[in-house]
Write a structure and sequence with these properties.
The structure is a homodimer.
Chain A lengths: L4 H17 L5 H7 L6 H13 L3 E2 L8 E2 L1 H10 L7 H12 L5 H16 L2 E6 L7 E10 L2 E8 L4 E7 L6 H15 L4 H14 L2 H5 L3 H13 L2 E5 L13 H12 L1 H9 L6 E4 L11 E10 L3 E10 L4 H19 L4
Helix pairs in contact in A: 2-3, 5-13, 6-13, 8-10
Chain A binds a DNA duplex (30 and 30 nucleotides) through α3.
Chain lengths: ~350, ~350
DNA sequence: GTTAGCACTCGCTCGCAATGAGTGCTAACA
DNA sequence: TGTTAGCACTCATTGCGAGCGAGTGCTAAC
């Protein structure tokens, strides 16, 4: 038995009805809304077939049908119903670009901007930074025994860390040391710089005596650069969906958002275009009834991060995919400095 | 009718029982637990008095009593039952100081550290920074037409912003400009610096031609420094309290957390020591059944921020006040650089 | 002032019947 | 062979009333 055109049409009508209503769809209403001009009995026959094929589920025998994950999958891959019109997109684009301008605001604002505009929970993955190449290093005096170390990389991305320094060093001495460090480390990756710092700390040569707390610094760099970082925004949006009216369910969802490492591995799977993971495809138990829409963004050349929204599988996919696609473009545009 | 010692003792027992059980407290259980050695009938008489005086509320006539906000207020101000012992405090202190080291981590980590350790929702108010005095300014080349402006203030607090600059300027030119700016602006407040930048942008004198996007920068500084900023952490903790098992209530709570300006005015009321606001005292409708415990922290000299936790009025006040007091000390310690 | 006793209140739970939306099946129809 | 009307059947949901029990207020005795 295959899914012919009529079955597809019925399935589409069911999915779209369910997305709006969140109640099982019955054959009678369907015969009126799907526009095929056939009676409810015919629809019933088709629905029985679709149920047998695993596209539909009935909560209980005398209820209507609910689309399964398989149905959403078919819906997303085979059908491309109305997304957002130009006006809507443009309005959202403006709202978004007003809030996210540079890499810092992506990290601090990105997730909440996306969640505000989509009304879903948003995730932002910052790209792993240990492969970035160092362009220059700078030491800026902050207090008598503290300096700010600023690392500029080839993507314009900046890592800054406050470190302890010998109190004998004044501003110009620190500037000179910065120049020296730049000279020595230019072109190396952040990972190599880190290894070098570990080396200094261990060997305690001239530079190690000048800079205190180098091991600390290297460790902190490792933490900040080696693992991707993920930001969550708008977690409370989930409370607006009746699927999560039960506190236990909502709690499980929120807890899943706390487990950063699983979110990171979820977002690492982001590929070039817009990605959609439905239900179990997410690989996260608490997201069994959720869908995740992912999109990549580029920082500088080649280093990619990812954004995502998470919400009930009952989601206006086309609209949200349009949204995410737009965010992806906007971010990449905002973050690519001209060289 | 006044609150004599026995009434106080009974009230205390009710509050503490209710904090643990979250169920109305009856006279029978109370006669056993309060340790007065009187019968339930006697307790009932006293409870009737306390109800009349507004310290107790009965949800319905055949239920036990529930402490009112007035009761919690009396409990907090007059009674000081067991807080945390030294060991507990010490363990929490370690966990906290491991996560919050400098002003940046207070902003990014503070709220979630506090919420993790208390299991309540945490708020962190960063101090207004426009009164800080500038110590030095630095320009660091990031890309051909971008530089990082770092402002070091007398509290060691750093404001950094990415700005557009003329592409004709190389690293050493930017360094020189930084020195010049430092020379000119040292000792001024951030507010004065901002005004000066606005002036440059308007008059378009020599320096304005050198630096592009000055007005942008000034506006951004204004936004970042003029208004206090507030961070929220662990909002989902509220879902663990049965008082918020209803999604509508939880949603109202979460929405209140989105209204930053009312949170700011809540936290601005923080005074020198640990503050406790109970129910309507918070002035926020959604926090009518919540209590807020606030504590100040100092950054450098004199500039104060505030931390707070928000949770159901049924809260182990003494323990939480101990906690907040410790956080306050730790933060102030971690953020006061030696001069 | 304290306590035992007792009638009373009222939220909560459980079982039961009525309701109604929706199904599957069958037989007739085009 | 596909479509449709008709009909018996299922089952979640709702409303209702009885029974339960925790807890109270009051009264009378200590």
């Amino acid at each position: 038995m295959d899914v012919d055109a009529r079955k597809l049409r019925i399935l589409q009508a069911i999915v779209e009805d369910y997305i709006l209503s969140n109640t099982p769809v019955g054959s009678r209403t369907l015969s009126k809304t799907c526009g095929l001009g056939v009676s409810s009995a015919t629809i019933r026959n088709e629905m029985a077939d679709l149920t047998e094929m695993g596209y539909l589920v009935q909560p209980h025998v005398s209820a209507g049908r609910v689309p399964s994950a398989k149905a959403y999958r078919l819906y997303v891959t085979q059908l491309r119903p109305r997304g957002m019109d130009e006006q809507e997109i443009e309005r959202a684009r403006k709202a978004f670009s007003g809030r996210v301008r540079d890499i810092e605001s992506v990290i601090s604002q990105g997730a909440s901007a996306i969640s505000d505009l989509t009304h879903y929970t948003a995730l932002v993955l910052t790209p792993r930074q240990s492969d970035l190449k160092v362009r220059s290093l700078h030491l800026i005096p902050v207090a008598s025994d503290r300096a700010l170390l600023v690392i500029v990389t080839d993507s314009g991305v900046i890592r800054d860390t406050s470190i302890r320094v010998s109190s004998r060093l004044d501003a110009s001495a620190l500037y000179t040391i910065g120049q020296m460090l730049t000279h020595r480390m230019q072109g190396l990756t952040l990972r190599q710089v880190r290894e070098m710092l570990y080396g200094y700390a261990a060997n305690s040569d001239a530079d190690a005596r000048v800079l205190g707390g180098i091991a600390d610094l290297a460790a902190q760099m490792e933490k900040q650069t080696e693992s991707d970082r993920v930001m969550v925004g708008g977690a409370h949006n989930i409370l607006y969906y009746p699927e999560y009216a039960d506190v236990t369910t909502a709690r499980a969802f929120m807890n899943a958002l706390e487990d950063k490492s699983s979110l990171i591995s979820l977002l690492r799977r982001t590929e070039n275009g817009i990605g959609v993971m439905i239900g179990a495809e997410t690989g996260i138990e608490a997201f069994r009834d959720c869908s995740v829409i992912t999109a990549p963004y580029r920082v500088g050349r080649g280093h990619t991060g990812a954004i995502a929204i998470v919400g009930p599988t009952r989601m206006p996919y086309a609209r949200m995919m349009d949204m995410m696609s737009m965010f992806s473009q906007e971010l990449t545009g905002a973050l690519s400095y001209k060289e």
